[in-house]
Design brief:
- The protein is α/β, with parallel strands linked by helices.
- Helix 1 runs antiparallel to helix 9.
- The relative contact order is 0.18.
- The chain binds pyridoxal-5'-phosphate.
- Pyridoxal-5'-phosphate (PLP) binds next to helix 3 and helix 4.
Amino acid sequence: MSTTSVSPQALAINGGSPVRETLLPYGHQSVDEADIRAVVEVLRSDWLTTGPKVAEFEEAFAARVGAAHAVSFSSGTAALHAAAFAAGLGAGDEAITTPMTFAATANCVLYQGAMPVFADVCPDTLNIDPEQIAKNISSKTRAILPVAYAGHPADLDPIMKIAGERELIVIEDACHALGAKYGERSTGSIADMTVFSFHPVKHITTGEGGMVATNNAQFAETLRRFRNHGISSDARHRQSAGQWHYEMVLLGFNYRLPDIACALGVEQLKKLDANLARRREIAARYTAALREIPGIIPPVTRPDVTPAWHLYPIRLDAAKLTADRAQIFRALRAENIGVNVHYIPVHLHPYYQERFNYRGGECPVAEDAYQRLISLPMFHGMTDQDVSDVIRAVSKIAGCYIR
Ligand SMILES: Cc1ncc(COP(=O)(O)O)c(C=O)c1O
């Protein structure tokens, strides 16, 4: 692949023709006729919410990820909040998490009045570094929240070991990692609770939606109550038992995922394996092509891991390029490649800086990576032509800005 002698005028940002005519988004859902039929069927039924599709989706999901229980929620964020509650996080507690994530991972700790503590990431995967977790443990630590960044599971064996030694609860944020494997084990079967999201850019979608998978029956019961106002049985069970009486036993929320969404989830789940296979194919094509382009560093996969490829984040090698991330990002957008950046480290958001006095420098590995990251489009509906367009655009731009 040629990466040299691209003149600046050839770039779309400088008036040249773009690699493609229409914008390729960084993520997009795939919804087919079977999905639509399933949703319409529910709309014609008696149960729009708290009906039979909820249990059907939860049972199919639990079986798929290898967990004893799965509890659905109105979003991944609600699922994280519920997991933080079930873990018993409260005022005076600390929970260790990664800065290289969407803010919701840390926010759920704050919802519970506890304190998120940011441990820096490993330079290869950008997942939380178990050594940094160990360094940040205090007498107040109660939970660890690793994130499977981009769909690559964090190093869970040492994390579970640290947690086991100190009786900490591990909530894995696997919103990027449905269908991933850590060794031979499925994401969802390892941590005390594992949280998933069904936002449209994810591996399967319910519009909005989330799930907590757990092998712990006590957590599952608390999660079910928390998503339903803290009430100890749901409407359908009361109806089938002919009971009017219910008890609110804890302060919960309405975080229920309706049957309309669960019906979509049941259908989408049937396509998960195909979606994962397509994402892996795209990742393999990207990596084979991009590793040949000077200045572009493809994401790393550790040998014992099967990632789910929610994102495909490349890093720029600043020493080899004459343009910075902002320029390259704008140039890719001008070529109609819908790139994104994941993530601004959480502690550098103004809310966190102002409330907790972060100034930068607290997590140097994550902060350095952030300056160089660009997420390329990655979704299972991408065509081969879409993948070629992305590779061509990256090659064109790197070829113009190479030192
Ligand atoms: C790592 C991570 N955690 C949590 C969430 C929140 O999920 P949701 O958008 O379903 O609330 C997201 C959403 O993108 C995410 O990427």
